[in-house]
Amino acid sequence: MSTAILALSENGDLQRIYDKWLTRSACSSDSAEIGSDRLHLKSFWGLFLICGLVCFVALIIYFIQIMRKFYGTANSKSISIGEGNSRSRHLQRLLSLMDEKKDPSKREQKRRKVDRILSENDKENDLELERSLKRRQTQLPIEGND
To answer: Region Disordered: what ranges (predicted)?
Structure first.
């Protein structure tokens, strides 16, 4: 690497790079061009538009899912309770559906099952270790009766 720097300094390329990028006069003379290269809020309008649209679509999908769930439970409960439900009951049911937590996924259930099996195996290993220690203690002759 030092030989490459030495070759650049011998050719005069190193001084030219220094003058171009590190001197103050080069930076101050190009101030008009730098202003046009700066990023402003207007530069990101497309990114903001895409993010806003994606969030809006996700929100619509969420509300469609909630409404499908609401009408599914409303139909089943209206048969059992009767047709005379008030608006407050509907609103309360809708809010409870929005606040409802999801059941654990199958992946979490599998993980819990594997953890349970591993803990049972650990218990079995601990019991086996205790049994082997007790066998060794009973097999050892009592020293001191000589």
So the answer is: 97-119
Distance of CA 47 to the CA centre of its chain: 22
Domain limits for position 97? 47-101
Residue 5: partners with Cβ closer than 8 Å, 6 or more residues away? 14
Does a structural domain hold residue 114? yes
Residue 36 inside a domain? The answer is no
3-state DSSP call for residue 83? coil
Please name which of 36, 41, 97, 106 lies closest in space to residue 71, comparing C-alpha atoms.
97
* pLDDT, tens only, 109-121: 777 777 777 777 7
| pTM of this structure | 0.39
Alpha-carbon distances, residue 123 vs 39, 59, 102, 126 (angstroms): 62, 48, 32, 5
Strand runs labelled E in 6-96: none
